[in-house]
């Protein structure tokens, strides 16, 4: 009788032990689960990195998938969910830079429009359409003016070698509706290099925009022009 009772007690103790072990393992697994890990597993799986089941546990398979993702995105292959990796996966918000008030718009300067003309005329005339009046285009539609300009440039084998802005009037154009910009430049036409002075007439389109309305070109001698005044604007290619 005592032996049976002892055997029953041992069985009960064994059952209780197994139950405790099972509960401990279940609790440990639940404790080890992490919501971020589960999200990462889902993302990595969708991206083709095979982290295994999205169970929220950082097992060897998940770590290998993380390392593979890191290597393919030029991140240190730590196999950990560090800050750069979470940010690359879109699970960590990128801190926003403090809002900086916009810089005040520069005062309107007619020479800026002329500078665009000098930069783009012989290479990308299509870039100049916003800077030209219809009068300058002689009434031609923009695409027609571009086509004709390219044709003329090709026929002359024209290229502009260097330039400098010599005169801008008025020098304080804030209240003016018209302006004049004079440019001295070196150009090559049909293989011959020569100096040329160009006078641009501009009209104000709005408070910050000037448009080229007319252009007069004057050939000059190869002698160097008069020295520029200190406030003159220069540009070279």
UniProtKB/TrEMBL annotation:
Q: Which Pfam families match?
A: PG_binding_1
Query: Domain named Peptidoglycan binding-like: which ranges?
Result: 34-89
Which keywords label this protein?
Membrane, Transmembrane, Transmembrane helix
Tell me where the transmembrane regions lie. Answer: 12-32
Specify the superkingdom. Bacteria
Q: What is this protein called?
A: Peptidoglycan binding-like domain-containing protein
């Amino acid at each position: 009788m005592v032996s049976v009772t002892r055997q029953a007690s041992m069985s009960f103790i064994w059952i209780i032990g197994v139950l405790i072990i099972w509960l401990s393992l279940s609790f440990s697994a639940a404790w080890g689960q992490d919501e971020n890990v589960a999200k990462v597993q889902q993302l990595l799986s969708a991206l083709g990195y095979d982290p295994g089941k999205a169970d929220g546990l950082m097992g060897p398979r998940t770590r290998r998938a993380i390392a593979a993702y890191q290597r393919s995105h030029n991140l240190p292959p730590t196999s950990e969910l560090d800050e750069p990796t979470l940010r690359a996966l879109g699970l960590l918000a990128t801190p926003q830079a403090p809002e900086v008030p916009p810089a005040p718009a520069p005062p309107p300067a007619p020479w800026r429009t002329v500078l665009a003309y000098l930069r783009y005329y012989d290479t990308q005339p299509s870039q100049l359409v916003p800077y030209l009046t219809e009068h300058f285009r002689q009434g031609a539609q923009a695409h027609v003016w571009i086509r004709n300009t390219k044709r003329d440039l090709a026929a002359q084998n024209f290229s502009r070698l260097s330039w400098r802005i010599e005169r801008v009037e008025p020098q304080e154009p804030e209240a003016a509706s018209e302006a004049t910009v004079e440019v001295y430049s070196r150009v090559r036409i049909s293989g011959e290099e020569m100096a040329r002075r160009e006078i641009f007439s501009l009209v104000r389109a709005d408070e910050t925009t000037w448009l080229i309305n007319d252009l007069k070109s004057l050939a000059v001698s190869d002698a160097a022009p008069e020295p520029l005044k200190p406030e003159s604007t220069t540009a070279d290619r």
